[in-house]
Amino acid sequence: MADLTSTFLGIKSPNPFWLASAPPTDKEVNVRRAFEAGWGGVVWKTLGLDGPPVVNVSGPRYGAIHGPDGTLLGLNNIELITDRPLEVNLREIKSVKRDYPDRALVVSLMVPCDEDSWKSILARVEETEADGVELNFGCPHGMAERGMGAAVGQVPEYVEMVTRWVKQHSRMPCIVKLTPNISDIRKPAEAAKRGGADAVSLINTINSITSVDLDLFAPQPTIDGFGTHGGYCGPAVKPIALNMVAEIARNPATRGLPISGIGGVTTWRDAAEFMALGASNVQVCTAVMTYGFKIVEEMISGLSDYMDRKGLTETREIVGRAVPKVTDWQYLNLNYTTKASINQDDCIKCGRCHIVCEDTSHQAITMAADRTVTVKEEECVACNLCVEVCPTNCITMRELSEGELDQRTGKPVSDYLNWTGHPNNPMATTSGK
Fold first, then answer.
1. Which of 19, 69, 249, 419 could staple 42 via S-S, CB 3.0–4.6 A?
2. How many angstroms separate the Cα of 377 from the Cα of each of 348, 383, 411?
3. Which active-site residues does the annotation give?
């Protein structure tokens, strides 16, 4: 049976599934229930400086995007960091860590951008015997306007400076949580590494407005007639998160930097995909806020079953396996050719493939009077749209072998050739092999 035990920065946990810094990790009672449900670790909701606590809104804090079947696709929040006193949080963290020594407990932090503030709070966190700290450089609303959160994460020089302070004044492993609200995720990751970060976590929430109330003409959630931008998370952000994780994993300047993957993880498969692209573990928030703590049971059993089927014994065997297969467009094989193929036995004659191909693609699928659909290979460019919209998975892409005639071009399929050496490239500098 697969061993799901995870070691991240020397921090051990029974599995790679952690709860992200968010409302589910804001109180001792929540974290204890999470650990009892089976979560391998938590990142405690972000703590701020001692003194008057942060004030959150007392009206709606969440807005949502739902699919046609009512499934939650994305969640927008305008909540800030913890609004409970620092002393209370620290006391609870120490209590939980004492009672669950085998679980990972990392503390998220966000304080003003001066060395004394960081030095002060780090000393107090160390007293709790927590396993590490995560620097919240990603929150896009409320705190950013105060010079914290994304206001730091969007400036690589600040990321490096604060990370260096943390490493100078603390013995704890330091994870830097990155904001996706930036043009190139590699830059703050590189800065974190220069500052001495032990790892990065990503992504934090995406700056967004999810909807507008067309009666009030105000963004939702609406507070006394007004709305604001917030942080978007959930299944809808997963593709963005996967790309950013992969960018860091394959970037020569950050290759080997440990990554904690965040962004739309809902199932064991999501977690495995993040791990394949370079994440050593994953953090979950929206899925728990949608389905509750016990979803971790399916994650654990699903990942374990997958690993058994693949003959994998440890999670580290998954980490980074897909990174060598991530490349830039210019290196893709432009001679690789496929054609849509329809299994008539499984086709229910719904016509969706014909409609989308006829209206929006290449008019490569015909429909007869009896609603039988067939592929015109002389028109098919293998865009894959028909595969994606087919409700019965009866359409696949058949690969043409080298030398086989491509009816669309009238030429036989040739061996590998990429854009760098393609004859249509006016700047071709290589053979494209």
1. 19
2. 21, 12, 13
3. 139
Element (H, E) at 8: strand 6-8
Alpha helices in 374-428 (DSSP H): 385-389
CA angle 414, 415, 416 (to 5 degrees): 125
Residue 59 in contact with residue 1, Cβ under 8 Å? no
pLDDT tens column, 237-266: 999 999 999 999 999 999 999 999 999 999
Question: Residue 233 in contact with residue 205, Cβ under 8 Å?
Answer: yes
Burial class of residue 344, CB neighbours in 10 A (0-12, 13-18, 19+): exposed
- How many angstroms separate the CA atoms of 412 and 404, rounded? 5
145-150, long-range: CB < 8 A, 24+ apart: 146/112, 147/112, 147/113, 148/110, 148/111, 148/112, 148/113, 149/110, 149/179, 150/179, 150/181, 150/204, 150/207
DSSP of 26-91: SSHHHHHHHHHHT-SEEEEEEE--SSSPP---SS--EEEEE-TTS-EEEEEE---S--S-HHHHHH
Name the nearest CA neighbour of 3 among 12, 17, 14, 11.
14
Residue 134: beta bridge partners?
Answer: 108, 175
Tell me if 2 sits within 8 A of 29, measured CB to CB.
no
d(CA 153, CA 144) in angstroms, rounded, equals 9
84 CB neighbour count, 10 Å cutoff: 15
How far apart CA 342 and CA 87 sit, in angstroms, is 64
Pairwise CA distance, residues 426 & 25, whole Å: 55
Helix H or strand E encompassing 411:
strand 411-412
pLDDT in tens, 198-238: 999 999 999 999 999 999 999 999 998 998 988 899 999 99
pTM for this model (two decimals): 0.95
